[in-house]
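Entry:
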Amino acid sequence: MNGFAGSLARPEAVLRIALPLVLLALGILAWHLVVELNGIPPYVLPGPMRVARTLVGDWPALSASLLVTLVTTLQGFALAAAGGICLAVLFNQSRLMEYSLYPYAVILQVTPVVAIAPLLLIYLPQHLAVLACAWIVAFFPVLANTTLGLNSVDHNLADLFRLCHASRWQTLRYLKLPAALPYIFAGLRIAGGLALIGAVVAEIAAGSAGAGSGLAYRIAESGYRLEIPRMFAALVLLALTGIAIYFALALLSHLMLRRWHESAVIREP
């Protein structure tokens, strides 16, 4: 049965990879035809081949800016993941702390980062301001999902732990945290992309102020100079970076959950 299930899973996996690639190829072809048939100049809409050439030709500058943005994104994501999970554990252990602090976490989440970024750039060094924006937008999904996971433990299992006189630490370590793992990884997948968005917004704000070195700054700079192919090349790099972050976290989630959780276990027909 395992072999049969595996043989059924392989064609499905091929389709999940092939169909998006086919649609991507068709989209690029349509983009190329629109530009070529209508004679659109590159400063209005560059074709995919020109964007590819620009990406190769400007790779030294773009890769350096990409590294700056990527480092800031990963730092903000790491801080958000650590802070969100630790604070969620604190909330689970103390209702008083949850009732006191959770509303402020919500306020932090609903405040637009595009409005916060210029203020942070006034009061903080540029790198710290960009890092703070990446952390702000990535923090709440981790906190909210982890809190939900810790509070969604089966009451029967929690009662069993109490009957066995398990300590709060033992209940947290052996019951609540393992049961909350799917929620934690769901929050991390969301936070990874949001950290990149927060870093990009802050870098654009910094670029408007005449400072910056990240990839979003290159986009703003290219827009001011009407270097539209370079702008598209930087956008492609940002999109690929976001995709890579999401799939890396999705792979980590699959590896951690595949042997026991329903969302990752391959079902036999």
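Confidence is low (pLDDT under 50) at residues 1-5.
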